[in-house]
């Protein structure tokens, strides 16, 4: 393994840490703990694709949240490019929230 090789698991962790700094404006919990991130793909060129959803299709941040996710992930030195794809299949439900998020919102 050369020094230029980046550990994708380590990069995945960094991406998750960045995602945890982004909050849904209506719910005081980060988008990762809310379960809005369905998948993160990193290819060998360090291009990142994030499959995510929103709490509702007419979410007030439908335009800005994916851009914020893209910009923050792109800001990582190891990431060459980032693309966010929004899906509503499966639709987001509160069941996708982490225990931490449910606790934070007093749902446990």
Summarize the structure.
The chain is an alpha+beta fold and 108 residues long. 27% of the residues lie in helices and 17% in strands.
What does the model show?
The chain starts with 7 loop residues before the first helix and ends with a helix. The longest helix is centred in the first third of the chain and has 12 residues, at 8-19. The protein has one domain (8-93): Fe-S cluster assembly (FSCA) (GMP Synthetase, Chain A, domain 3). The protein has 108 residues and is α+β, with helices and mostly antiparallel strands. It has helices at 8-19, 64-74, 99-104; strands at 37-42, 47-52, 81-86. Residues 13-85 form the MIP18 family-like domain. Pfam families: FeS_assembly_P. This is FeS assembly SUF system protein. InterPro entries: Fe-S_Maturation_MIP18, FSCA_dom_sf, MIP18-like.
Overall CATH class: Alpha Beta
Distance between the termini: 45 Å
Biggest sheet strand line-up: 1-2-3
Q: Tally the helices.
A: 3
Q: Note the overall shape.
A: globular
Please state the CA-atom Rg, rounded to the nearest Å: 14 Å
Entry keywords:
MIP18-like; 108 residues; FeS assembly SUF system protein; single chain; alpha+beta; GMP Synthetase, Chain A, domain 3; 27% helix; FSCA_dom_sf; Fe-S_Maturation_MIP18
